Amino acid sequence: MAKKSKKAKKKMPLVYKPIGFALGWTSGTVAGMTFQKTWKVIRKEDDAPDALDRDRGWGEILLAAAIQGAIFAVVRSAVDRAGAKAIERSTGTWPVPDQGGRD
């Protein structure tokens, strides 16, 4: 039975890859929508500044990038963690073999 458990643990990262990909895509979409709504509340504008937008200043561009990055990181971490916990609850195995960070 110990061999079966070790094999299951080795296969889990492979099984989790497509799930992790789907969760990553979903979290990116959610983060993008959240950022757009946040920017609209902060600046009362529909579109956030782009780094190559000639009419926007450094401060506005860097503020938008910082807010977008923070929202993306929080949403991605929350979705990744929730997915990993769900896998652990359903299989009894943590979906990644080591305790390290993302690739």
TrEMBL record:
Annotated TM spans: 56-75
Annotated keywords: Membrane, Transmembrane, Transmembrane helix
InterPro entries: DUF4235
Domain of life: Bacteria
Name of the molecule in the record: DUF4235 domain-containing protein
Organism: Streptomyces althioticus subsp. attaecolombicae
